[in-house]
Amino acid sequence: MPTSTSPVIRMQRSGIRSVMELAMLDPTAIRLELGEPDVSTPAHVIEAAARDARHGHTGYTSSVGSLELRTALARKVTEINGLPTSPDEVVATHGAMHGLAMAINALMGPGDEMLVPDPEFPNWRMAATAVGVDVATYPARAAAGFVPTLEDIEAAVTPRTKVLLVSSPNNPTGAMYPAHVLEGIVDIARRHDLWVFSDECYEAITFGPEHVSPARYDTDGRVVTFFTFSKTYAMTGWRLGYVVTRDDVVHDLLGQVAEATVACPSSVSQRAALAALAGPQDDVRDAVARYRERRDAAVALLAARGIPCVRPDGAFYLMVDITRATPDSDEFALRLLREKHVSVSPGTAFGAGGAGQVRVSLASDRTAILTGLERLADLVDEWAATPTAAVPVAAAHAD
Ligand SMILES: Cc1ncc(COP(=O)(O)O)c(C=O)c1O
Fold it and tell me: Which fold has domain 7-41+282-383?
């Protein structure tokens, strides 16, 4: 048989998926490992998409998305994100992650390096590895609220660095970077002649601080911004996102990659996106209020149980410090699932910076989150009280 010579064979399996697959075997498990909104797409969006499909919106569109959708997106980016944008500067994609993968494909090659924050969202690395691009990291430390310093970022730049990736609000930490940090990141990119990829997947999910797009500080078109309908409108399965770029060449290259791979974004999902943008935004406001309330309740519960965490300012994740029990987040996540029937993502699924932590999704049911965190705190207490209890997982499972 022929064998694969593709860089894809070097891709690591995500540590989130491994826990997820074990959790699926336990019907009693409280599932807090995945970043999926716990509500479905607003009914008016579903109805508009069904109506438009019946009216013939079922064929190919331009590979960069229909002009009608790009016009609506350009208006949204201009008005909501404060970035004056024309429809020719927008590319509709199959979600933010597809936009990122297309941009990596279009602008980078084997041997180039992309810098991402640590802890990191694992799919960035997977998309880079798939095309032979190397990934290096800059630290975003818990002690600093998971906000990186400009010194650390600049120190991580090498002659091979081509892209500096930033994501605020952040997954997995929920950190929002202050405007001066975002401005400094664009400045570093300018001085070292790098692209900035800004993953703004959670732009709408913020609990106080204003969301700021680094593109506000862009003077020459080096910032490429990635948005999505997935989280804002609970539309993860519709696969609809968009890229904003000031650079005509980047726009054309993205269109070519789209043509060569997906032909165009799903036409029915493009109609759904139009309805989501044009319709009432109450569902978005209500969802953000719910995430915020759950964040407050979760942080208060952990404080009462003496478990450290960094209060997230946005997105819907909480990194919980379990070092009182163990620095091994994989072993902790496995025991939590096996002994307490709660599944969380091990921090190291997000890189070395996630050691001693686990990620809890606040997009789950409120009672499930609070029950899950009580059980997590119980395990920390039990483990810390009996250091020898750090028995191998297999032995713990046997009884
Ligand atoms: C940081 C980040 N970027 C991108 C994505 C993927 O978004 P989409 O569904 O639009 O591809 C996610 C989803 O969890 C994410 O957390």
Answer: Aspartate Aminotransferase, domain 1 (3.90.1150)
